[in-house]
Here is the input.
Amino acid sequence: MSGDTTGSFDVIVVGSGAGLVGAYAAASRGLRTLVIEKTEYVGGTTAYSGAGIWLPGNAAEQRAGIEDGPDLARPYLDAIVGDDSPASVREAFLQAGPRLIDELEANPRFDRFVWQGVPDYFAGRPGSLPQGRTVFPQDIDRAELGDLEPLVRRPLWTERWGVDPGPVMVGGQALIARALLAFTETGNGTVLTNTALERLLVEDGTVVGVEAVREGEPVTYRASRGVLLAAGGYERNGELRQRYQPGVGDEWTQGCPGNTGDALTAGIAVGAATDLLDEAWYAPGLVVPRTRPVFYTSVWSGIWVNAAGQRYMNERLPYDRAGHEMLRAHTASGVSHLPTHWVFDQRQLDNERAFAGLPVAPQVPGWFDVDEFIEAGVLKRAGTLEELAALIGVPGDALTESVERFNGYARNGKDEQFGRGEDPWDLMITGMAGAHTDGPNPCLGVIDKPPFYAATIVLSDLGTKGGLRTDGHARVLRTDGSVIAGLYASGNTMAPMSGRIYPGAGGPVGSSMAFSYIAALDMADGSP
Here is the structure.
């Protein structure tokens, strides 16, 4: 807790992930701003993330010599999003991004963001950048936060495996820490954890505050300028997932435990329109013992097969595209693809860098204990492909044929089925984990060194992405298109700017930051 703790504020922000950027923007403009957070920690799913930020044309890109901006990124979004989100909302995002980074970098707490070469996820589309647009915050010493440090959500590897987070905050933790420091140092910011939104307070058709439960007691906080709903999606709510995404459960998600859709349902209760509630930021998940699956960005070796033993996709697709393809194939084919079997040979385990596509791996040395995985039943091992097929319940002849066909592609250098190794993203994984040398394509490696293995891949996600419909000012709309005065949304509480797609690394965090910022500007009447 910090700052003013009375019941009246100018701005209330519900949720403490990337919405903290909007809270800072409001507080730095002199608005008394309250952030309420349902859990004991600040940061939400953003704190788990690598904190990639996709905001085309920002200053960090320019310093890296990347030519970019709204006019270059607009054709890319138009091509891949189409009619799945309003063009006016996309335009607001494009215009706000560079200005936002400029403003944050003017505060020493944010320091300078750094560009890293992560390719856009849809290569070959108009405006796509093979070198990528993604920027990242710089690390920060944990001690720099002082008494605020215990408020920041622990890294995923600490929460799951108890690994010491160390003296330096990285990725999403660093972004949240910097935003929290900047927000509280305005002198206009208050943070209340363990404070859960119950409903929105409405008077004469205008949202004027929130009713919440704090430490088990009902409380009411009023907001004279507006309420920003930035509390994530509903990925941890099994009932809502079955309602909006039948067949996709909540047990595999990577989302923060507090993301149960409270802000979404509160908005709906006051008449808000919604869109794309069947969508999520999908990602394949590697099933591991004793905890939720591990977010898997891309394979190094091996192939993925369905229940018929057939390979069905480029296993190096960017994760959201891979997740969507898993779901599409499962729904369309009549053959189960959920779970998928990841088939590889001993080379995968012999290569110390071969799990580079698993973001948790560098932080948890030795986490892939083969015997433990086999004992838990999430990994199968056999001396031959036929024996492996029997263990995972797929036809032996089909699995053998799939592997032999792929081996031919590896030796010849061209994946004639799915084009693995032809896009910049595919090659980036090779740079992280090493090149295959079985043929001319560094992304294709022969599968013929026993024993053979099959790991379990499920359809995971980084959070749901459908939400409350907004305009280009982040104002929440009714079903008739009119504005609900005093109510704003961003992040996964908001129907996504990017529609059904994931434009590039940092799409969710970048969009959440941008629309939180846009909301703050509107609540401050657009003042600079």
Summary: The longest strand covers residues 217-229. The first helix runs from residue 19 to 27.
